[in-house]
Design brief:
The chain has 293 residues and is of the alpha/beta class. The chain is 47% helix and 12% strand. Helix 11 packs across helix 12. It is globular, with a radius of gyration of 18 Å.
Length: 293
């Protein structure tokens, strides 16, 4: 259903409010440079600091501006099942093609709780769900057996996973337990190459915000089984993948975007603050290595 380079879009701010004009430009730039789908209101989009009204407006603008050129996978995750349901209901009405739903954070549900949470969403919404597993942020880990059970129970609703566990063996676990039709997307840019080799079909990417063409070309090379070209592009992007996390994300990627485009600011919302001088230096060096500045 989804594949290739899929940026987890930043949410631009100007003067403390959502910069809709800049976001629309960002959406156009991403599509023009080969991104195959778009994810508004993910972690990189600072969804946890958006009000529900802002959250929904960002999704609505993304769908409007994409205008059917690429699908929109709306960030709908929450640690409150009913709020995730609310986001999914709005996103479906707005025209999003799927929901990206993170494991509930802070609450630390058991695997039974995860089955109940995602099961409720699958049973009460018609929007396909891409699970989002990022235990480094949520603490809770959606284990492979839970992923497989959800896909077995809800084959038309639980359609894929963005996995940022760092455990590459899970790509094979999911393939063996579910099948090749289950959409596996890397959640770690630096692991996208081995994940694709193992059977993933793309990446929901931070780096693609600032390097959409390079990331799209990299994913196209992987899809064509041209791993010599993929390695060459990966080498070009590799320092940038790590620079994006030299400080609390999305600080570095917003700084990188401000270096590439004069119409984007590096403004963040508290509790995040602009990235450090050390991180800026790393981002600048990585941008030069990739030929972006």
């Amino acid at each position: 259903m989804f594949s290739g380079s899929i940026p987890a879009l930043v949410t631009p701010f100007r003067g403390g409010v959502f910069d809709e004009k800049a976001f629309r430009r960002l959406v156009d730039w991403q599509i023009e440079n080969g991104s195959s789908a778009l994810v508004p209101c993910g972690t990189t989009g600072e969804a946890s600091t958006l009000s529900n009204a802002e959250h929904h407006r960002v999704i609505e603008v993304c769908v409007e501006q994409a205008a059917g050129r690429v699908p929109v996978i709306a960030g709908c995750g929450s640690n409150d099942t009913m709020n995730a349901h609310l986001h999914m209901t709005f996103s479906r009405k707005s025209g999003a093609k799927a929901a990206l739903c993170v494991a509930p954070y802070y609450n630390r549900p058991s695997q039974a709780g995860l089955l109940a949470h995602f099961g409720y969403l699958a049973e009460h919404n018609e929007l396909p769900i891409i699970l989002y597993n990022v235990p480094g942020r949520t603490v809770t880990d959606i284990l492979p057996e839970t992923v497989c059970e959800l896909a077995r129970r809800y084959p038309d609703r639980i359609v894929g996973i963005k996995d940022a566990s760092g455990d590459l063996s899970r790509v094979t676990d999911h393939r063996m337990g579910i099948g090749k039709s289950f959409c596996q997307l890397s959640g770690d840019d630096e692991l996208a190459l081995p994940a694709n080799a193992a059977g993933a079909v793309g990446c929901i990417s931070v780096t693609a915000n600032v390097a959409p063409r390079l990331c799209a070309d990299f994913q196209a090379a992987c899809a064509a089984n041209d791993f010599e070209k993929a390695r060459e592009l990966n080498d070009k992007l590799y320092p940038l993948h790590y620079a994006m996390f030299e400080d609390a994300s999305p600080g570095p990627v917003k700084y990188a975007l401000s270096r590439v485009h004069d119409w984007l600011t590096e403004e963040l919302r508290l509790p995040l603050v602009p990235c450090s001088d050390k991180a800026r230096a790393e981002v600048d060096a990585a941008l030069k290595h990739a030929g972006l500045i």
